[in-house]
# Entry
Amino acid sequence: MASKERIQRLKDENRINILNAALQIVKDDGWQALSMRKIADIIEYTAPMIYEYFPGKEAILIELSNLGFRKLARRMKEAKEKEFTLPNQLEAMWLAYWDFAFENKEFYQIMYGVGMQCCEKQKSAQCNETIGYLVSEVIREIMASQYPSEELICRKYYTYWSIIHGLISINLVSLDVRDETNRHILKDAIHGITRSLVD
Amino acid sequence: MASKERIQRLKDENRINILNAALQIVKDDGWQALSMRKIADIIEYTAPMIYEYFPGKEAILIELSNLGFRKLARRMKEAKEKEFTLPNQLEAMWLAYWDFAFENKEFYQIMYGVGMQCCEKQKSAQCNETIGYLVSEVIREIMASQYPSEELICRKYYTYWSIIHGLISINLVSLDVRDETNRHILKDAIHGITRSLVD
DNA sequence: CACCTTTGCCTAACACTGTTAAATTGATTA
DNA sequence: TAATCAATTTAACAGTGTTAGGCAAAGGTG
# Structure
């Protein structure tokens, strides 16, 4: 009856192969390019076979997403354990988070549904300029007495933008933060950064 | 020769109808549901007719995205003009940005490619818990002497997370921020928030 | 008015997508 | 050997974006 186990092992292997194939496609050509038939091609089966292992494409994506979360959590835990003061632990964890996002772009994208594009790059950079200009103008004026470098103004702008865009994004993928909490974070952050401009 | 103008007007109207139809579909059923044939249905034409007005689906999305950017810029400008001190202007602009994002979810999503899902909600909330727990633990310890409420800890956690996730997102949709700028913002933000925990 | 050209739109099709039902194959069991 | 059962494939459906070709009405010209 060891054959049962052998068969189970083969099934497990197939499951893993499917996930690996999916990941490979995504790494090579982006999420847009992922399709059941392409996965099947790589593992040298036909598409319907995949449905014996996953109820659908969505399930594969969810599985990969969960894999990403586990991976990220592990890295953050490791980063924490290398430090001994609490503030250093905090910094190390967030830096690990940062590094994970760029080293595992595909994972991060599916985990938080960011940049699952529809219209390739470009324009954003163009169209954002208006908004960036609008805000930077005011930052420049506030800091005028300190003769700030353009780089510093730019940094302050991105600091504002990051936290607001970040909080919006978190809400849009609906991890339902309390409304009052949002408002609190938002105001605190804006005031905190604004204060950092003048002193 | 006024007929030329009449015809041009009709063409312009069709263009606008296409964009409006697209927007309506998206508002009703999300970006996933948008298709050329559905647009055609609404404006009571057949799908290929759309290609007389737009080179493809992507072009429609880009147009809508640009429309969103103009709308957002206008709202921020208006918000600014209602205030007279610089810090108030800054706050008003960012609050306008915030409100725009939620009142025009569909626009914001396509403008910054956020939450163009692939796997509906749920999981994120579940899987993020590990990470949230991991970080909150450390925050709680740092703040221990102040007996912070769970709500406050949660807020601090989201503050960290927002700015880091925001900065990552901005980079992932590739508005290429300089690498050194990123690092600078990241460190500043982390230290700033950490400092806010202890005093 | 008749002719020709252009324009606007549609039909039909292609190559893809996710997914399902049915048939087929091959191995396991009786 | 015969029957059963699991794994996999074939064929199909309904949907997607997109393109080529045709048709009919409108425009301009003799």
Remarks:
- Residues 3, 35-37, 47-48, 51, 56-57 of chain A lie near DNA strand C (CB under 10 Å from a C1').
- Chain A touches chain B through 88 residues (CB under 8 Å).
